[in-house]
Amino acid sequence: MRARLAFVLPAIGLGLAFAFGGCTSRSTPEPANPTAEAVAVAPADDAKTKQAIFDLCRKMDESIAPFRWDLKTCADIPWRTDRNSEEGRPLIYAEFGEPTSANKTLILAMVHPDEITPLYLGFQLAQYFRAHESELKDAHVVVAPFVNPDGFFRKPRTRMNARGVDVNRNFDTPLWREKAVKEWNTKLGKNPRRFPGNAPNSEAETKFQVDLIERFKPAKILSIHAPLNVMDYDGPTSLTLDRFAKEYVHECYQLRNRIRAKMTGYFPGSLGNYSGVERGIPTVTLELPSANPKLAEAYWKKFQPGIHSMVDFKFENDDRKIVTNPPRRK
Length: 330
Hints:
The chain is of the alpha/beta class. Helices cover 32% and strands 12% of the residues. The longest helix is centred in the N-terminal third of the chain and has 18 residues, at 47-64.
């Protein structure tokens, strides 16, 4: 996923495409400034963990203050953490809606911390779903808005994590051992921004994403990036009818058409390869048109309705492993 030779859409066209669904954008009520005691975490989280999440959010609020965003990262959100980053920061996520629903959507943001605008959308989505949980009828949403905090707090901010690894090239996909490092050495000219690591699934931030996928078993995944200005789809297609039921593939096409996503290719070790191609989970990368923080609020207003539309989309034939199609004629 996130091939750099992507099919690029005009900014206004992409916005209209992902705004499909007819949902009305609503402003999120401004929460009060949180204290360590007010940071909502699940009862299982101990006081030390609670303080760590609060410290993370406080430092983040200080870091984004120059952007003058109307955004509070911690207030009233039930953040959880099960794993720390390579430098020991809590990797946070929150759940909204009905946990027993099969209509689960995993939303990831800030995988590459030098892409600033996804940070705003990630945390704004958490605030939005918190304020509008009653609208999540038969839906369960998991939001992980800050996948790579270590890279964010570097000066300057970096695409990679603390160990210099691009965590969107580090997933354990079938061709990782054969191609990932080889292509980095040759095609990518050892570009440090694209380093896939010395082994697949070696990074805490990669394992964090894998944990969320394995634990919640999402029906669909949205990962927010910038600035390629494209909607990228990885998942079942007509070429995978030998692996996935045709009814399920048809519904994947319905989702893809609803948000007007394109197939732009994928890399060894990318999320789209790992979850979409190999596991048959429709995985959409929303590439915002710019990483300019001044545009973040405008992007929120433009893309929030489409994101809600994707969350609302339900699969009736979620059969990823049992193939019911007759064999193709040769």
